[in-house]
Structure formats: structure tokens, C-alpha cells
Amino acid sequence: MRIGFPRALYYFDHFPFWAGFFHRLGIEVVTSPATHRQIMEQGLKKASDETCLPLKLLAGHIQALKDVDWIFLPRIVSVEADTYTCPKFLGIPESLLPAVPPGMPVLTVTLNWRKGKRQVLKDLEGLGVQLGKSSSDVRKALNEGLEWQKRYQDSMGAGWDFEESIREIGRAAKDLTESAKVPTLVTWKERMFAKMSSTALKRTAEFPIVDQNRDRLRIALVGHSYLTHESYANLNLLRKLREKAKVELVQNVNQEEVKTNLFGLRKKLFWSHSKQIFGAGNKFVADQSVDGIIYLTCFGCGTDSMVQELVSRKAREQHKPYMVVTLDEHSGEAGLVTRLEAFLDMVERRRVHEGYVSTYGECLDRNSNAL
Ligand code: SF4
């Protein structure tokens, strides 16, 4: 049995969980190819005009899935105890049914971690029944999925690249088949710590030393994982930025740091992605070694319309250079490159001039931040 998994939207956050889950059930998961022009065009034809770019891409990826028995479109209601996903996540799969090729069955399940692990298991057991799997198989698969997801998040939290962290999942599958003699967790942790000692530890322990003599700018790219890592839709922004600066990402900030930086709000943020973006954004604003922040958003994103403004106010308070890049299906590469170069030039000049802000500029900032 082959299940089609679109390489869009929740792929960038939750694919490791589902890969581990289905792997344990002995089901092959087939992903769509990386986004290209045809996928984007097909998505635009099938998705609603009013929806956001990531959902349009998801519609295109659904149509790009070939030779599969089912298309998997989970409804992810909540991924942790006290938040929900955005309303457009909640509308899946119904909002995307027009994109499903005629006659192709859709496999779905509701995942709501607010209701606890027991309820999640119950819902997954319902999915297992459709796939002819027993409750005990599903329980083991759930634990396997959680283990793979943890590996992925730990890798990202340790500063690994997205591609490298996803590759870790392939290694997890290999470990699983070879695990008769070797305890999987130990080998994985050993490998990860070895890697951390050469890369991630440099990022933390050696920062003060690097900062004193650094010549590269350090820029934080803030935004949803499915925008920052979607290189076709974001016109290779991440790669372009990495050519000119050291880049920090929201996804590399671990949950503990996100939690400690959720301050300055009158009430808790409702959406899980927004919480992560705001917490990580706050951290980057306060971090003196971050020279500037680029907020990557997309046209039609309701949650970003609020969170982007919150992060921008924090950045203004701290006089941190800040730029918003809004993507849609018409975004052009030339315009992006021009804006990026202008922003980086400005940040560089500012670093040379010690962040000087005129009295008039300070007055403007003070007034614009009055809530
Ligand atoms: S959070 Fe924004 S970009 Fe993401 S699915 Fe919702 S509306 Fe779209």
C-alpha cells in the first residue's frame, strides 16, 4: 500500500511524525516532488483565490502525487496543550477536495493534542481500522512517530539545516531495521552530539568570541517553516541570504527559549505557529548579536497580519533593523534581490555607525509604539 503525502504546508513540521507512524505500520509513504512551476500553476487553478499561498501550493502538490493508493490529508487541530492551528489548517481536507484527482480516495484523521494522548490514540485507531491494522499496531506506530518527530525537532533545535534534519528521518528508518543489536536512541544521540560539537556548539559557546571579530552579518529570517524552507515559492530567499549573511531561523529556536520569550502580550497567543514565531522573534530582537530581522509572510495569512505587527513593534522599540517580505504567486525575483541588497546595505551601514538614531527618529519610535 502506498500513501501519497504532499510536500507542502504540514510536511515541513509534521512529516517526521507521519513517516515514523506509517513506517511502523509497514506502509510506504510517497511524497510529491519539490515545488516547481507546474505544481504552482495547478495549485492556483484548484485552490480558492482568497486562500493563502501555502494552501495553493498544497493543492498543486496533491495533484502531483502519482501512483499512490490514497492521498493523505490529516486535519491537524492542535499540536500542543494550549493552542490551535490556524483556521485554514482546520479546513483541511474539505477545502482541498477540488484538488484531489477524480476517483482518488482520501485518507484523513483528526489530530487534536489538546485532548491528550489517549484521544489521539483513539482517533489514530480509527485510521488504523481503515488500513486493516490492530490497536496494538497503532499504539506502537504512534510511539514510533513521536520518536521520529522528536529526533527531527531536536536536530532543528540544535541548529541543523532542514534538509539535514529530514535526512535524519531516513537514518531513523535504517536504525529501526538494524536495531536488533544496537539501541537506536543511543546511536542517534551519539551522532547528534558529535555533530553538535562541530556545528551547533560553535553556535552557542563560541558566539561571544565570534562576535568580537565577526565580519559577517547575522540576520534572523522569521516566518512559517513552509515559507522559509519552500525555496521555489520564496524565490530562494534562504540561499540568497546565506550567501551574504549568517542566518538564524525560527525553527532553530527550541521550545524552552520560545516559552521564555513570550512576554509583552495582554493575552496568550491562540495559534501554535504564531506562538513560535513571536517567541523566536522576540528572542532575535533582544539578541544584540543579531543585526537585523526579515519577516517572511504571504499574502492572505490572517495570523501573520497580527503577529508580524507585534514583532515589528518589538523591533522598533529596540531599534533593530526590520523588513517584511510578503510572498504571493506573482512575486518576482528581481524585486526581491533589490530589496534584500538594500536591506543588507542598510544593516551594514548601521553596524558601522553604531546604531545611531537621531532625536527625531527616537521621538517617532516612541510615538509609534504607544498602544
Ligand atoms: S497560518 Fe497563514 S500561511 Fe499558514 S495556513 Fe494559516 S493563513 Fe495560511
UniProtKB/TrEMBL annotation:
One of its GO terms (molecular function) is kinase activity. Residues 2-244 form the DUF2229 domain. Keywords: Kinase, Transferase. It comes from the Bacteria. This is Predicted nucleotide-binding protein, sugar kinase/HSP70/actin superfamily.
